[in-house]
Amino acid sequence: MNPIVGVSFAWVVVEVAIGTWFVLLGGVRRAGAEMLMFGLLAWLSALYGASTTLQSVTHGSLIALWEFFRTASGTMIIALAFDIALRFSGRRVGTDRVLTAVYGYCLLVTVLAAGHWLFEPVRIIHAVSMPLGALHYEEAPLNTVGKVVLAPVSALLIATTYVFVESAWRARRGQWGMTVAWFCYIAAVVNDALAGIAHWGVPYLLEHAGFVFVFTGSYTLLAQMTERLRSSRADLLRTEETLRSVRNTLAEKEHLAAVGELSAIVAHEIRNPLSAISNAVSTLRRSEVAPASKVLLLDIVNEECDRMNRIVTDLLTLARPINLQRQATDLGELVLRSLGPARREGTEIDVRVVPGAERPLYVDSHLLRQALENVVDNAVQAMGGGGSLTIVVTLSSRDGTEGREISVIDAGEGMNTEVRANARKAFFTTRESGTGLGLAIVDRIVTAHQGVVEIDSRKGEGTTVKMFLPEVRASDPGEAATIRPAAPGLAESIRPPGVAAGVKR
């Protein structure tokens, strides 16, 4: 067997592999229609090469089958090349009718070739003498109908060549390789046509030129895809940089807005105590002030100083990292020590500790007491100084973690959905006076304990604030707190137990 036959079969294997790759890339990975079409072109080129090669090694009735495959695949290759060239040149839009006519023509050629209406019934031997061994192609020559039907192929070749050249000229780079390979394909078409019609003693070259075109085209398409990916990556990086800049700008504006809001709140909250202190001091400077009035004025100064101290303490608690100092704490006793705001207003208080929940829990008692006082203070204010306040300490668990839950239940005005959603945000308040830091500090302290704060409230139905604190070992170190959102979806599903043992205060 002539070595050229072996080389042709090698081209077929490579073209099948390239075609499969591009069909998967274009059809499955959605990399572009031209990828899918080029994959089909590579498969058809492999079919053409296999048919031509088999013509030189087989004889008999199979020759008609190889002629059919050669004619149908060769015509379709040119049609696909024309379509791909249009896509490269950017002229694909508005050419649907032209391409429909081209593919319709290819279908007509395929049908006529399948019916053996394009070839003479006789068989001839096209012999080629070569140094490496002779080649013998057994083939059927075209009849008159075949010559007429295949004549438009010349016009299609010329149109495809023009579009490839124009596309390469406009692109200036990247597509000249495929254009040159197409010229090689045209030369091979002319060679094979003359060899078949004039019976020149030269081998057929179209399967070899087809491989050159497929190989060059695959390189060009992959290079273009790489360039697109590189360009997309650059666009993505620019977009990311733009987003980062916008994010930094927004963060700066949010920071400035927060500073402005904080300044307004602090100025408002500090100015009132300062005014009261200033008035008291001015009155104390008068010599005619009675001793009883002096005592009252000094009490006012002391109370307002305490008020300013609480404001500063709240701001520091919210701003600085929280380092827990855990120690064994009786939550029932801690709750009783946190009832100062309620006792001052004469609120009726009911404290309950269920059996099993009285065991000590390792928490930072100082911080947790501050959180409890904030919740109790909010509850008292929501009830307007009256009503009944219930605090329940129960055993509970979250996501398999055992712990305790402290529920503070008031009979106040309750919260609507918007207020409940924003209640734990810093500086959010519905009162005319107040920093809006109370529940934000509560959330931060409980979060530092790796716990969860939940708010169950409806307008006109009171509010229940639940603080879940997980069990920890005495040796667990305290860590700096990081603010994170409370677990959603639990507030409406968990109610404090209706029966609990404890004492009433």
Task: Please supply descriptive tags for the structure shown above.
single chain, 505 residues, Rhopdopsin 7-helix transmembrane proteins, Helix Hairpins, Heat Shock Protein 90, two-stranded antiparallel ribbon, 14 helices, rod-shaped, disordered C terminus
Descriptive report:
The structure is a single chain. The chain is α+β, with helices and mostly antiparallel strands and 505 residues long. The chain folds into three domains: 3-216, Up-down Bundle (Rhopdopsin 7-helix transmembrane proteins); 255-319, Helix Hairpins, CATH 1.10.287; 327-504, Histidine kinase-like ATPase, C-terminal domain (Heat Shock Protein 90), CATH 3.30.565.10. Helix content is 59%, strand content 12%. It has 14 helices and ten strands. The protein has helices spanning 3-28, 33-55, 62-89, 96-114, 144-150, 152-171, 176-197, 206-284, 291-319, 331-337, 340-344, 365-382, 417-422, 438-448, and strands at 124-128, 135-139, 327-329, 348-353, 361-363, 388-398, 401-410, 452-457, 463-470, 502-504. The strands form three sheets. The protein has a six-stranded mixed β-sheet with strand order 8-9-7-6-4-10. It has a two-stranded antiparallel ribbon with strand order 1-2. Strand 6 (388-398) and strand 7 (401-410) form a beta hairpin. Helix 6 runs antiparallel to helix 7 and helix 8 (206-284) runs antiparallel to helix 9. The longest helix is centred in the middle third of the chain and has 79 residues, at 206-284. The radius of gyration is 44 Å and the shape is rod-shaped. The termini are far apart. The model is unreliable at 477-505 (pLDDT under 50).
